[in-house]
Amino acid sequence: VDCVQKGRCMGEIPEQGKAERLGSRRELRDSPFLAAARGAPPSRIPVWYMRQAGRSLPEYRDRRGAVGMLEACSDPALVCELTLQPVRRHGVDAAILFSDIMVPLVASGVPLEIRSGVGPTIASPVRSAEDVAAIPSLYAESLAHLGEGLRLLVDELGPTPLIGFAGGPFTLASYLVEGGPSRDHLRTKAMMYAAPDLWHALMRKLTEMAVTSLQVQARAGADAVQLFDSWAGTLSERDYRAFVLPYSAQVFRALADAGIPRIHFGVGTSELLAAMRDAGADVVGVDWRVPLDQAVQRLRTVPPAVPGPVVQGNLDPALLLADDAILLGEADRVVESGRCAQGHIFNLGHGVPPEAPPDRISRLTDHIHALTPR
Ligand code: CP3
């Protein structure tokens, strides 16, 4: 079913408690993704991919056409369609809302663009106390289009759970302070060290935005949320704990009442895994730099948390450009090393590259589904 063709217009739906909503989607009870995220045994190893929607799919390129990224994100019917595409094609165990970490900033009124092949760029980077003060607050009403996209999806998805997401405070700050993508995040870290008051004021604003956005998504029917603090791995654990963790912890705390699994992800975070779990995540994403058995060791806290760590990842996305035998062999290794975790959600260590052949992604998905779950 195609949300765009149906062109439905949804009215305002009253807020519903999670328990009530789960009742209306009874089929979710068997979701391998939700079982694994809760540390329970899944019926099969759950699989989804970060950036599963997007340029790797010809149907995505067809539908997006010349529509700008941010424009696409503000069209609920198109959001619904683009979110469903990888679920239909690959049979993955979770959908992730088609949106971007910059959407809440746009909704609050910060002028920015997302350039294809480049990433987000900010018209006037945030460098001073005045700049931070000038960032407008985000009101839930400004994210009505996001909620509407989610509600369309909940109707369409049947037994497939839907993941909502937000950008983590460090990653959003990096785009705002640098003015665009950055390798070393020098200006961002310089602000953190040299102007801590300014830094904390900025973090407070971004935390509030992430909370508002995730609460809108949880209320509209998201079955799990992921906080993408993609670039936090540039920090030492000590600095991460001092300058970022308190804010991520606040985001996760604000979501506790929603009763849905909370996933925390970043790239190059091998040294931060325990801290990212301490922030209050139920599931920790692991990139490809550390094997899952070692990641699980790092995530075990003293005294051991009950239940044990649930991990997500960690196949190197570059393997999608190698041949099938190599790809599937490495995928087997990822699955084997993940067996010591309380739960493992199979994923890549970062997003699907636009060059990845879609048929190979489908074969990988089928291959993982044919393995015996823990
Ligand atoms: O399928 C999904 O994963 C859901 C959609 C999604 C997008 N962005 C769509 C998108 C998600 C979860 C994101 C999160 C996001 N956006 C992150 C965190 C995840 C990560 O990659 O670490 C970050 C850092 C961004 C910022 C951003 N937006 C970047 C770096 C880019 C890519 C720039 C490029 O063209 O290479 C974007 C644009 C973007 N977001 C695209 C998509 C599908 C590409 C848009 C296009 O078609 O040109």
Structure description:
The structure is a single chain. The protein is of the alpha/beta class and 374 residues long. The protein is built from 18 helices and nine strands. It has helices at 3-6, 18-24, 32-37, 58-64, 69-73, 76-90, 103-108, 129-133, 144-157, 169-178, 186-194, 196-220, 237-243, 245-255, 273-278, 292-299, 324-337, 358-370; strands spanning 95-96, 112-115, 119-122, 162-167, 224-228, 262-265, 283-286, 310-315, 343-348. A seven-stranded parallel β-sheet has the order 1-4-5-6-7-8-9. Helix 9 (144-157) crosses helix 12 and helix 10 crosses helix 12. The longest helix has 25 residues, at 196-220. The model is unreliable at 1-24 (pLDDT under 50). Coproporphyrinogen III (CP3) binds at residues 50-55, 64, 69, 96, 98-101, 114, 116-120, 165, 171, 228, 230, 351.
